[in-house]
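[job 4471] stage=fold_predict status=RUNNING
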Amino acid sequence: MYQILCKDRISPQGLEVFNPEKYVWGDDFENADGILVHSNPLHDMEFGPGMKAIIRVGAGVNTIPVDRCSKTGIVVFNTPGGNANAVKELVIASMILASRNALEAMEWTRALQGRGTEPGRAVEKGKEVFRGPEIMGRKLGIIGVGAIGSRVAKAATALGMQVYGYDPYLTPQTVGELRPHITMVGDPRELYENCEYISIHTPLNDETRDYIGREQLALMKQGVYLINFARGPVVNEAAVNEAVSSGHVAKFVTDFPTDEQLTMKNIIGTPHLGAGTPEADQNCACMAVHQMMDYLENGNITNSVNLPDVSLRRSSGDRVCIIHRNIPAMISGISNLFSSAGINIDSLINRSREEMAYTMVDVGGPVGAGIVDAIKEIEGVIRVLVYK
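[job 4471] inference complete, writing structure tokens
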């Protein structure tokens, strides 16, 4: 039986995907085969020798020690796109609410209660202060045009906005598919200088931490609306607070408000609510469980953040999967061991991702412990798994 450790509440509809004859799941396993996690931090957690996979039921993996997992041969996955619609809807809603000063207007209207007169009269006198611009015809800049950013672009285009995007990692094919909805630019400064609304949709890593700081904010148009539903540290806190206080940023909407920002005017904070819908929970959980089962049972990798995606249809014999460093002569070394043992290779596939690589070998019969031990001795091999 495979043991799956759930570090957060996982959607029951997702857990139901597990085959109960092969899997057990819960929150108390000492040496689980895999972990499903939402936002519970795992950096201080020790992983048992049986740990093979960690799946973030969502997108961001900053709470997972990815580098440590790579060194020990633990594959880290996420579920990109599973919560994209949920985040998209809240981004669009927040942009409109911020632009129209709707939240402040709601609070002001609620304060009219109990004054002894009909609110309608006071409303007509006081509503002028809350007037704000429509988003139709305005320019929206999107930093990071992935699963979420692309959906925001399409929705904003449908609402009549002019959408510009920056994402150096998109393939030419993806850029072509997005062309009816977004104008891609080669430098983010073009967005800062020309767009009235800017929405950030990048992962958090060393490259994107403080991605929006004083220099970037200074390039933005006076009265820009800045929206962050990516991760808090993507925007430098001190810099954006200063820009909001000076009025350079008209409104800052963030799903990750700090204590100081909760007290500031013109900063709208939501409680990490972007992916907080039952539909998103279910979508991500189902994706995560399917990915977990396919890896634990077949060695196939889909949506990994530390290893390449690799998938191969099973043959009739055993399968050997090797996690290793991306170094020369690795494939020949592995093939030679099978050849020396008189084992015929039916299929072999190898993929690399930066310094990491993954090799799947299907053979026509059983694989003994001797060849597995020999593969482990090859320099650069991190982990060897055999699938019967």
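[job 4471] summary: Residues 272 and 293 are 29 Å apart (CA to CA).
[job 4471] exit 0
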